[in-house]
Every structure is written in C-alpha cells, then in structure tokens.
C-alpha cells in the first residue's frame, strides 16, 4: 500500500514477479507500472502479465510489475471509502499525481515502463507531462484523449444507472456471464472481476450480497474528471520526452487509429500500433493478444532504456 498524493489517501497495489527469467543474456531489466481503465481494478492485468512473463522479450527482462488501484477503485476504494463516498468529480490530474507519488516511493534507480489502459493510459501520459522523464518509456493502450473539454455527461448518466449489488456470488456470476458487454470479455477476466471487483455489501455474516468496490458514483466522477485534463494532455503530448507507444484497437470508438495518428504527429519518439479486430476494451477481451504487443514493444524500447539492477 502506497501513500496517495492527497493526505490520508492510500493507493493499493499488487507486485508481480516472473517465476523464471526467460529473457536473453544481458537483457535490460525493467519494472512495469500498470494503471487500469475506469471502473476496473489492478487484478485485471493478471492474464496479460502471466502471458508476458511466459513469453518475455529477448532484450527486456521484466523483473517486477506494480499494478495500482486508482484511489477510488478496487482495494484503494475500500481503504479510502470515507473520503470517496458521494464524490461527483474526480480530476484526472489527481490520478496523475497519485502515479507520481507511487513512483517517488518506489525509489531506487530502476527503469520504469508505464503501461496503462484508457483512463490509466491517459493518467500515465499526464504524469509524464507534469514530471518529464519520470518513465523510461510508456505504452498507452487506447488512451482517452479528447481535443475539446468533455465532461462525458451521457456515459456518466448511464454509469449512475449501472447495477452495483447482487444477492450472491452465483447471482453476480450469472449476470456477468450473460450480459452482452461483459460476455465479450475473456473468461479469466470476468472471473477476476467477480473475485476482486466486488466486496460484501454488509458486515452481517448472514448477508451474502455483494457490491462493486468502485461504486457507480465513483466511476461517473472519473468520467466527468476528463473535462479539462484530457484535452490538456492531448495538447501537450509533444512535450513527452520518453519513448512512447500507442496501442489502439482497430474498432475503438474512443481512440480510433486515425485520431491517434493526428494528435501524436508532433511527438518526438512515438510508435503507433493497431490491434486488428479489437475495440476499446482490448485488455479485457484479448489479454494475451495485448500482452504479445507489449512484449514486442518492450523489445523495441530496449536499446533506448538505461541499465537497471534495482529490485523492489
């Protein structure tokens, strides 16, 4: 558990390490810092990480991966429940500052590569703009990068109507397995979401009800928080100095490939990769495919990364 950027708030994290080293001799040693999409949580990175560790790059050795829960998501929301209850606006500048706070607590001379998805990707980019060269490299997976202020009013309203409570674990499982939105996810991701994205709705042992750790009002607050932060990030991408890759879904409605090409044209060290047939939630729908792209991108970053021997 790390301290957040605001006094008293905590950032929950999981640290993952490969069981064996599969990289080549002399491979660059890196630490991954993972930031999830809005409404989700750190454990949803596990299938991608498992695949990445099993197919590690020839030139990069991922020594550890630090997956964070946003301050009002997952286990962070549980820790910060009193301060996040009833919030209506969650500025993305705050999530960027939380990421920088975690980086400062990691310490050491390690090479940190940020991998983020959607809101998490935008937050990593914003953190790098605020504090240049905080990362050795960044992989932004379908980031949300508006060119004009956008409070996401429509999706925020839809989120507030989302179901958040189930009578039992089996009821939750039936819901997620049968729902068209969640049914498109990899089965491992759905299982992890039920296991780690829900918590008991009451303290009574006889009450089996489960509720989302990230309440609908928290998720909606994050959508609204894009208002000025997202266009600020977009207009300042040119300031990013570290190698940056954009992995976008071919069918993404939030980050169409042609939009990414347009807004990144002034970046100094930018790679653009399109995942065929994928939509915005490519990490949830095809975690192994996403990991394959991460592996290739890490390999391409290797010659530009500093040497590091630090461990967590």
TrEMBL record:
It comes from Coemansia biformis. Residues 32-292 form the AB hydrolase-1 domain. InterPro entries: AB_hydrolase_1, AB_hydrolase_fold, Carboxylesterase_BioH. Pfam families: Abhydrolase_6 (PF12697). This is AB hydrolase-1 domain-containing protein.
């Amino acid at each position: 558990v790390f301290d957040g950027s605001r006094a008293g708030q905590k950032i929950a994290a999981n640290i993952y390490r490969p069981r064996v080293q599969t990289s080549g001799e002399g491979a660059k040693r890196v630490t991954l810092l993972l930031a999830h999409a809005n409404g989700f949580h750190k454990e949803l990175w596990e299938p991608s990480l498992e695949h990445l560790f099993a197919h590690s790059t020839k030139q990069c050795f991922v020594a550890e991966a630090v997956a964070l829960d946003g301050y009002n998501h997952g286990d962070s929301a549980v820790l910060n429940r009193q301060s996040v209850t009833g919030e209506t606006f969650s500025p993305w500048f705050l999530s960027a500052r939380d990421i920088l706070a975690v980086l400062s607590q990691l310490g050491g001379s390690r090479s940190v590569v940020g991998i983020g998805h959607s809101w998490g990707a935008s937050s990593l980019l914003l953190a790098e703009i605020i504090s240049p060269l905080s990362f050795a490299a960044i992989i932004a997976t379908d980031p949300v990068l508006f060119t004009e202020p956008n409070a996401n009013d429509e999706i925020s309203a839809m989120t507030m109507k989302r179901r958040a409570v189930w009578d039992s674990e089996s009821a939750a499982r039936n819901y997620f397995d049968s729902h068209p939105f969640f049914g498109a996810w990899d089965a491992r991701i759905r299982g992890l979401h039920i296991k780690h994205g829900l918590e008991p709705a009451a303290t009574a042992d006889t009450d089996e009800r489960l509720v989302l750790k990230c309440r609908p009002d928290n998720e909606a607050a994050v959508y609204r928080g894009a208002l000025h932060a997202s266009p600020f990030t977009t207009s300042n991408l040119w300031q990013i100095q570290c190698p940056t890759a954009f992995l976008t879904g071919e069918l993404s409605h939030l980050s169409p490939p042609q939009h990414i090409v347009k807004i990144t044209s002034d970046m100094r060290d930018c790679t653009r990769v399109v995942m065929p047939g994928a939509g915005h939630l490519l990490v949830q729908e095809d975690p192994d495919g996403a990991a394959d792209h991460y592996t290739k991108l890490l390999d391409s970053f290797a010659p530009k990364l500093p040497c590091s021997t630090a461990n967590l």
